[in-house]
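Q: How do we represent a protein-ligand complex in a form that can be generated token by token?
A: Start from the inputs.
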Amino acid sequence: MAQRTVVSMPGDGIGKVVLPEAVRVLEAVGFEADYVHADIGWDSWVNEGNPLPERTVELLREHGLGLFGAITSKPKHEASAELRPELQDKGLVYYSPIVSLRQTFDLDVCIRPCRSFQGNPLNFIRRTADGGFEEPPVDAVIFRQNTEGLYGGVEWTDPPEQVRSALATHKKFGMFADTPGPDLAISTRIFTRHRCHRIVRAAFEYAAKHGYRSVTVCEKPNVLRETSGMMEEEARKIQKEFPGVQHWSTNIDAQMMWLTKNPEDYGVIVAGNMFGDIVSDAFAGLVGGLGFACSANIGDQVAVFEPTHGSAPKYEKLDPPIVNPIAMILTAAMMLDHVGETDRATRVRNAVGAVVAEGRVRAYDMMKLPGGPDVIEKGAATTTQLTDAILEQLV
Ligand code: NAI
Ligand code: MG
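Then emit the structure tokens for the protein with NAI bound:
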């Protein structure tokens, strides 16, 4: 096997803590790769005026495979205020580099598996009719369209006249027509058939390959008739190629309710950008939350793997670090799957599962403790100890 090169982008805060832990696991499981560091995030913004430096984009273009930790984002004006003095007043505008990455490389397929590990004290439990409790096993894999929809960035406050007059051609615009420009905010939700097709196809292919019985389109076609409607339409067409996989549909609001009633019924779920973000966070909450939530951003040429959590600045300076490395380690396992190293990926997940099941070594979140330096004396493992325990279970 040719040696691979992984572009390592720890980013900010706890991204710098958890990414090296995942690399330790990748090395221990025998994945042969070189890691090249690439800058991304707050320091690059403050010092260079660009949180996603061109050299990082070039490295990803060259190697096609990226492992990303987390970045710190701040609102536009706060971000500008923190720029180095020489960069102030140059009209630089902050954009989240991970959103830019997804758009630069058209990483339009986002995959977020939410699977419960047996014995995780953070797993969802439900009361039974006889007053007892049960713990339904959750195994949902969310496919989120990653580049368009409400995240497309086509938006205005005080839209230009051409936009207003174009909107006025729609009869429903009548109720907004008298609103003064500065009081009118518009964020668009643009779906293209090509990308609806790609995300829905990716979901069906995954379901068929991994033996899921259904793909649920989680949208709102009764109200968002054009955009959600287009995704539904593509799903109906594509399902015909996958007779072994049923096409189900839920509305995003109803799905949030069913989430805690019957989460075990859902397998693969596919949604647009915003609803995909919502439904994946919701399912992640049933299986342990941010300490367990992993994801992949996949395009035709480049793929970037990242835990769902952010940079958790509250914890970045704690020494020893206490955050849970499992989300990042499961993210690395997704990268292994992507490059065809499925045996190694399974070994990593099994090792995580064994540590969780044993319950001897737990991060503070798994002990339901508020985070802080005192969690260690309360019995929580450090980040490194938890990784060490996973390494011991690698077979
Ligand atoms: P966050 O995900 O960084 O942290 C929220 C809370 O979740 C933390 O206080 C912590 O209690 C917990 N948490 C997160 N990761 C954990 C882990 N691995 N183990 C144990 N507990 C963990 O989100 P927050 O606080 O809303 O945002 C902090 C910064 O991160 C902001 O600047 C935000 O913009 C950025 N962010 C970046 C993301 C990314 O890089 N993709 C995603 C989400 C937020
Ligand atoms: Mg999110």
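The chain has 13 helices and 14 strands. Residues 154-187 form one domain.
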